[in-house]
Amino acid sequence: MIDKKDYDEKRPLEMHNLHFDLAASHLDIEDWILDKIKHPRREFSVKFPLRFDDGHTELLSGYRVQHNTLRGPAKGGIRYHPSVDLDEVRALAAFMTWKCAVVDIPYGGAKGGVQCNPDSMSQSEIERMTRRFIWEISPIIGPEKDIPAPDVNTNPQVMAWIVDTYSVFKGYTCPGVVTGKPECIGGSKGRLKATARGCVYTLQEAARALGMDLDGKTAVIQGFGNVGYYTAHFLSELGVKILAVSGSKGGVYNANGLDIDALPQYEPALALNAPGGIEAESISNEDLLCLPCDILVPAALEGVLNKANANRIQAKIVGEAANGPTSPFADDILHDNGVFVIPDILANAGGVTVSYFEWVQNTQKLFWTEEDVNKTLWSIMSRAFQQVYDIHRKHKVNMRVAAYMLAIERVAEAKRVRGIFP
Ligand code: GLU
């Protein structure tokens, strides 16, 4: 038995290690392989000065962690947020390894981040920070080594600055150094909406497995950035009524369903004070999570479903669009209460899957239609869902343990055949 007693819910790395140990306890894998694949392969920490627009200078901390490269180049986003630290980046890098393995794309896992507050920074400060950070980590990134992408508070524009900075040092244009770029410099059609689309595909599969018809059902979405925003749109296209959505400053709620098109991205609560207003009342993030609904989609940060609120979650299905939104304590409570959780490493894998398509297109210099992108995404997501669901049924474990079991098996097999150098 894995002991959760001393586990600190606030620390994503501890959360990752527990998820890993739990899944590994159901598998018959050599101890040396488990040891090797649980921990990060390489960690890179940098400190660099940033000159702000008002002339003052601050020393910033940035990180890039390559958790694993056994199945292919390291892959994962870069985030800008005050909570970024080495432990968080380690956990997020590990999630990427398991995510890429669950959907069976030829990548390892990585993550990067700069501890900063982008809400209070200008575009030119963010540009200078991006360019300097990329220069700092340039020895370890590259199209065949480690390929960054967008994550919390980074977007196609930030990716474009990364392509430019990296290409200047190389002396030629290298679109394949990042994914999630604008289409005019080699980005893929469909990448911007891919995480949300993939999440909705897994919700459709879950509904099918549970015998639920999504038409007329209700959903609540926490986080209204790229992922939450498009998830709300795709779900409402399927006839799902969106009861509430929120940003970091709170949310909006309407028991009869919200008009999603009337809400601004990022901070939907701003619509409450806009001229003309909207038909909705304000709701706190905490109350929103506990609303009665069929589907709950946490699409923001880690640890929002925890010991304190898990018993009050009333959704039937949780689709983890965010990375690490559910603590292992909450996992057990939700499972005991009959909530079907689609784990992050499956539910939000659509983003990195279309990143993979983008990288393939960059390598071949041949571009796909949006239809091809979405069709191939659907086949990868539904295959992964089915494989995880089969393990869940066969071994009587929850969907997260099942997803980790599938991923760990695949990465362990790669280590076994590759062996040890020297
Ligand atoms: N940041 C996204 C994630 O957490 C996408 C990563 C990527 O496309 O490499 O999955």
Please explain how this structure is put together.
- This protein has 422 residues and is of the alpha/beta class.
- Among the domains are: 40-175, Leucine Dehydrogenase, chain A, domain 1 (Rossmann fold, 3-Layer(aba) Sandwich); 194-347, NAD(P)-binding Rossmann-like Domain (Rossmann fold).
- The protein has helices at 12-24, 31-38, 86-102, 123-137, 156-170, 194-210, 226-237, 285-289, 328-336, 344-347, 350-364, 370-395, 399-418; strands spanning 42-51, 57-68, 74-75, 78-81, 109-115, 146-147, 218-222, 241-247, 250-253, 281-283, 295-298, 317-319, 340-342.
- A seven-stranded mixed sheet has the order 10-9-8-7-11-12-13, with helices on both faces.
- The longest helix is centred in the C-terminal third of the chain and has 26 residues, at 370-395.
- The protein is globular and about 55 Å long.
Q: Overall mean pLDDT score?
A: 96
Low-confidence stretches: none
| Small molecules bound | glutamic acid
Number of discrete helical segments: 13
Q: Give me the CATH architecture of the domain at 194-347, please.
A: 3-Layer(aba) Sandwich
CATH class value of the domain at 194-347: Alpha Beta
Rg measurement, Å: 21 Å
Element string (H = helix, E = strand): HHEEEEHEHEHHEHEEEHEEHEHHHH
Tell me the number of strands.
13
Strand order of the largest sheet: 10-9-8-7-11-12-13
Structural class, by secondary structure, is alpha/beta
Distance between the termini: 35 Å
Shape: globular
Q: For this structure, what is the CATH homologous superfamily of the domain at 194-347?
A: NAD(P)-binding Rossmann-like Domain
Could you describe the largest sheet, including whether it forms a barrel? 7 strands, mixed
CATH topology of the domain at 194-347: Rossmann fold
Strand proportion, as a percent range, falls in: 15-25%
**Proportion of helical residues:** 40-55%
